[in-house]
Amino acid sequence: MNRHRRQFLRSGSLLTAGWLLPGVPQAAGITRKPLRIALISDVHQDIMHDATQRITDFVKQARAWEADAVMELGDFCTPQPANRAFADAFEAFPGPKFHVIGNHETDGGFTREQVVVWHRMPARHYSFDLGGIHGIVLDGNDCPPGHIDGYPSHIDDAQIDWLRDDLSKTDLPVFVFSHQSLERPNCIRSQEKVRAVLEGSRHADGRRKVAACLNGHWHIDHAREIHGIPYIHINSASYYWLGSAFARERYSTDIHARHPRLGHTAPYRDPVFTLLEIDFAKQRFTLSARQSEWVGPSPHEIGAIRDGIDPAWVKPACSAREIRLA
C-alpha cells in the first residue's frame, strides 16, 4: 500500500480508529466483496466549457475501477435541453446511477421537481440499498421559515421526520449523501437537528448506524469527525470559485466569450473525483486520491480564498483517506 493509501485523518480533521462498521457485527470470515461507488461533485456544466469531457473521463475511470455504481453530488447541470448530451455522458455508465440535487440545479427558474424528472430520480430525497449498505440522499434546498431570497440551504422538519423513519427501518451500515454540508458552520440551517437524528440512530445493541456523511458544494478537500461520525467534503470536479473581483481569462478569448462565468473560477486542468470503497472484511472504507493542477495562478497566489476556509483545503485534488472501522 502506498503512502497516500495509508493516510490517516487525525484530530482536527478526522479521527476514526476504534469503532465497528455500523450495521455489520464483528465476525470472522466475512466474505462480502467490497462495494465501490465512484463519486463526482460540482461539475457545473452551465459554467465549464469542457464539462462533458470531464464527465466522460469520470465514467471511463469508474469503469476501469469496476465501480458498482456512480453518484454525482449536485451542481451538475440545469434541466434544459442544451444539457442533454452532458447528462447522457453520465448515463453511459452501465450500472446504478445516483443524483443529488444541488443549489445550482434550479438556476434560471427551474424547479426541483423538474430536476427529479430530468434525472429520473425516485424523489428529491430518497434512499437505496446497494451491495450491503443503505444509502440516504438528502435534499438541502428546502426553504426555511421566513426565507426571502438567495439559495435556501435548509432541510425542513418533514424531511427530517422522513430521515428518522428511514433510518429506523434499516439494519445496514448507512452512508448519507448531500450537496450542502452538514459540517460547515451555517451551511444547512437545520444541520444540528439533522446531525442529532444521525447520531441518535442506533441498533438495539448500541452500535451506531451511520458510517459517514459525504457532500460537495464547498469545492474544498476537507474532512472532520463530529461526535463519532466522519463528515467528508468531495472536492469539485472543475474549479474553486473566485467571484467577479478576481475574474481573469485563463483560456482563449473565444472560450470565455461563450462561457462568461468561467473567468470567475480557478479551474482544475483535469477533472477531480474519487472512489468510495467499503471493505466489509477489513472493517474500513477508503477514498482514492486524484491530483490535478491549477490552470493559471492559484487562489493562494492572488489572495482569493474565502473567509473561514483553511488554505490547506483549497487544492485541485481529492485526498486519499483510509477510515479504519475496527
Helix content: 10-25%
Distance between the termini: 19 Å
**Major sheet attributes:** 6 strands, mixed
CATH class: Alpha Beta
Q: Which stretches are poorly predicted, pLDDT < 50 over at least 5 residues?
A: 1-19
E-strand count: 16
Give the integer mean of the pLDDT values. 91
* SSE arrangement, N to C: EHEHEHEEHEHEEEEHEEEEHEE
What Rg, in angstroms, do the CA atoms define?
19 Å
Structural class: alpha/beta
Count of discrete domains: 1
Protein model, in words:
With 326 residues, the chain is α/β, with parallel strands linked by helices. The chain has one domain (35-324): Purple Acid Phosphatase, chain A, domain 2 (4-Layer Sandwich), CATH 3.60.21. The chain has seven helices and 16 strands. The chain has helices at 51-64, 84-91, 112-119, 157-168, 191-200, 253-258, 299-302, and strands at residues 35-40, 69-72, 97-99, 126-130, 133-137, 174-178, 210-215, 222-226, 229-233, 239-241, 265-267, 274-279, 284-287, 290-291, 317-318, 321-324. Strands 3-2-1-12-13-16 form a six-stranded mixed β-sheet, covered by helices on one side. The protein has a six-stranded mixed β-sheet with strand order 4-5-6-7-9-8, with helices on one face. A hairpin with a 2-residue loop joins strand 4 and strand 5 (133-137). It is globular and about 60 Å long.
